Hints:
Helix content is 16%, strand content 33%. The protein is of the alpha+beta class. α1 runs parallel beside α6, α5 crosses α7 and α6 packs parallel to α7.
Amino acid sequence: MEAAGPVTRAAARKRAPQIPEEQRERRPGRRRPRRRIEEEQEEAVFREVVSFTPDPLPARYYDKDTTKPISFYFSSLEELLAWRPDMEDSFNVALEPSECRQPPLSSQRPRTLLCHDMMGGYLDDKFIQGSTAHTPYCFYHWQSIDIFVYFSHRTVTIPPVGWTNAAHRHGVCVLGTFITEWKEGGQLCEAFLAGDERSYRAVADQLVLIAQFFRFDGWLINIENSLSLAAVGNMPHFLRHLTTQLHQQVPGGLVLWYDSVVRSGQLTWQDELNQHNRIFFDSCDGFFTNYNWQEEHLERMLGQAGERRADVYVGVDVFARGNVVGGQFDTYKSLELIRKHGFSAALFAPGWVYECLEKKDFFQNQDKFWALLEHFLPTHSICSLPFVTSFCLGMGTRRVCYGQEEAVGPWYHPSAQEIQPLFAEHSLEGAGRGWVKTHCCLADAWNGGSSLLVRGLIPPHVGHVAVRLFSLQVPVPPKIFLSLVYKLEGPSGVEVALELTTGDPGSCHVGGIRTLNGTSARHSPRPLRVPPTKLARWVGHCGQQLQGGWVQRCYEVSLRGCLLQDLFVSFARPPGSLEEASFVCRLGELQVVDANSLLAPLPRVQAVTVSRVRWQRATSEEEGPPAPLRLSCTLHWSYVLSPVRCFRIRCRTGTGGGSPGGGPPGPEKPALLGLAFVNQYRIADLLVAAAGPSGDGRVEFLVEPVPKEGFLVPQAEWGRAALLYSTPRT
């Protein structure tokens, strides 16, 4: 590979200008939208003459077979330096930065890093809008980790946005990977490191710009090839510039160095931080060791790390390759030693439970793996409201919306994963046999594709059992509303309730009852049978039986000067019963919201446009009189993203008369197409009726915003656009 010429930082920024957020939200695609022939307040109408002329989309951004948007990577230095933000890139932008969390990542508490390396990467997770994968890999123990690294052997690995959205929702930092390997990697390093500072600064600036634009948090730098003296001499300068610029542009950004090259330029893994690689540690935020260490390596590192012990991430290969401590289901042995010496841990490829064990037992094996590590994995707390989750894993065998089935068939969409609880199994202390266990379950759902199953046993002479679901550190407003949707399986008289703990260094008043200073108090709020009128849009069925046997419980809590710390669900034996009571309860949704936020006006989805239209003839087995068509197109709209969880994209299809403003073709319920987490959505291969010779075909698209508070938005606030299409005139 020939060396790239010097590139200044100014030139790099000229080549890759920022697209302001408001433009990213409003600006249509490169190709002009189809001609708009009418626009009313409720709906915009566009006209299209059906044509089967090929109109290829950029291969980097779209799957060549389906035209669905995909996540991508760069394979060369030239691709990296040539990149500039484009509207096509916006599909891969994360919804928002990482949620507030406690303790912050900057604290000196030892951290846990998960390095996701699975079969080369960019598998089912590359499909930004989801896929129909039957048995995908799914990670959901987010409360136990602090940093997520998406690893592949591509030169510049940009994390698929589904991982970033899921991690950020849980307050977890996300890093991409910059890797060079073998002879080609050495040539690439020489191209930008062996010259003057303009070249390595241009590469660093471009990496910062990519993280900033796509809203992930930084980079793991992995140089797996030897370097010349000139190149290795510039490496600390490159790391310092990258780290400094990233901290300025990406709040909470991180740059980590992997234990590979030493200061002489030789590729010699050390399995520890020492005098041969210390210069790289001093130039960035942290050091990720190789995996073949023993306890004496950890002991030697104590002096090298000094006060930055938490910035040393001791590598653990879960596959247990080489001369390693633990690995596989014995990984806890590694963690025990790492925590004994106060270091952070880097778990490499915990997808071992998916790759090497039976897929049908994946959930049980994953829960077993993380349960064995539980003692060594301090959790972190979320510290912002609203706090809403349906426990959805971002996958399922069907799609459900508030108890109503909307689509049947397997689906996988990591961006759709909701906040996951603390999965646990607890036994009551003493001689009693009481226990409670939580695990995820795809068999039923209230909203999404899965729910949380809680099973347990209340022994005789024990009134109730409870399990902690979430750890929070939320300074709460004067009044909050809570809601729990649940369903008891089988005959059971067990009573289900929410419990919460509060605490604050100062005074905390709960419902007029003062708790002691500096303590934590546990409360069982009283359910509301009827919500206040103004809040009916949020909870309209308090205490009532809902579809599918679900029940909704609502609570109102008045607070002053309090910190919300934990959320429990408790199970009490039937009144008057002293016998052993077993239960199986499915939790469908949990909401904690600021009462005032529910009264704020809702914005309306506006300026829906239709562009990048592609037509295909249906396959022979789909044909009928008249032969149907397959429609692909891109929707854009305008909406402020900060208050939204996602958008549900729906459609109505049919054929209508000649009047463009004739309205929708009927009152049928619009079909769910999918979920969007940015202000655009690619519709791929939608089956529509062919237009007849005497009338237009019509398809209406609807964009339904889903607020973070979790309530249903009236259809008047949805965005709408209709596409009328006709056959060419002969």
